[in-house]
């Protein structure tokens, strides 16, 4: 019964199909959120690599070390995952099939960047972290070129 009422309402009140990242017609997209998340993951990677092991037998220092390491790892993984989610929103919601004509490597750019997000999550690699930032910069430039705007790339750190 509910299905019949819904179909009748659709026929009486036709609507236009809207597309947006938030399932509403806001149309707001910006790769800045990807950059911020990726940059936080890079920062945590650097902090993890800079941590110094405490002296053996110093239980308090070891506890502090493990606590700090755990927090850095948690943040790194959360931010790398967030960067991947933000990339996927841009890739699947903002970019349309028509963009592929102008940007034939569009899918490859996003696929590789998403894979780098995974690598940054599971590894502690300064190289992969930097590669992620390079990929995000490329996507930033691609996005703003499509929008025909000149938005400078910058990092917060």
What does the model show?
This protein has 157 residues and is an all-alpha fold. It has a single domain, classed as Four Helix Bundle (Hemerythrin (Met), subunit A). 69% of the residues lie in helices and 0% in strands. The chain is built from 6 helices and no strands. The longest helix is centred in the middle third of the chain and has 36 residues, at 59-94. The termini are far apart.
Record keyword descriptors for this entry.
single chain, extended, Four Helix Bundle (Hemerythrin (Met), subunit A), mainly alpha, 157 residues, 6 helices
Quick summary:
The protein has six helices and no strands. The protein has 157 residues and is mostly helical.
Which helices and strands appear, and what pairs or packs with what?
Layout: H1 2-12, H2 32-50, H3 59-94, H4 99-102, H5 106-122, H6 126-146
Helix pairs in contact: 2-3, 2-6, 3-5, 5-6
N-to-C series of helices and strands? HHHHHH
| Relevant CATH superfamily | Nickel-containing superoxide dismutase
Total of helices: 6
Pick out the low-confidence regions: none
Overall, the morphology is extended
How much of the sequence lies in strands comes to under 5%
Tell me the structural class. Answer: mainly alpha
Output the CATH class name.
Mainly Alpha
Main pleated-sheet profile: none
What is the correct CATH architecture? Up-down Bundle
- Residue-averaged pLDDT: 90
Number of strands: 0
**CATH topology, which one?**
Four Helix Bundle (Hemerythrin (Met), subunit A)
């Amino acid at each position: 019964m509910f299905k019949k009422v819904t179909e009748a309402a659709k026929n009486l009140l036709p609507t236009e199909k809207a597309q947006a990242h938030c399932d509403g017609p806001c149309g707001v997209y910006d790769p800045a959120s990807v950059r911020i998340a990726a940059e936080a993951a890079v920062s945590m990677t650097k902090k993890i690599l800079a941590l110094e092991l405490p002296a053996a037998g110093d239980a308090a220092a070891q506890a502090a070390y493990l606590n700090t390491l755990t927090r850095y790892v948690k943040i790194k993984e959360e931010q790398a995952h967030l960067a991947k989610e933000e990339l996927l929103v841009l890739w699947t919601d903002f970019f349309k099939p028509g963009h592929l004509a102008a940007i034939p490597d569009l899918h490859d750019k996003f696929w590789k960047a998403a894979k780098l997000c995974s690598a940054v999550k599971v590894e502690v690699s300064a190289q992969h972290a930097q590669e992620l930032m390079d990929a995000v910069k490329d996507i930033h430039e691609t996005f703003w070129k499509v929008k025909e705007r000149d938005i400078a790339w910058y990092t917060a750190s």
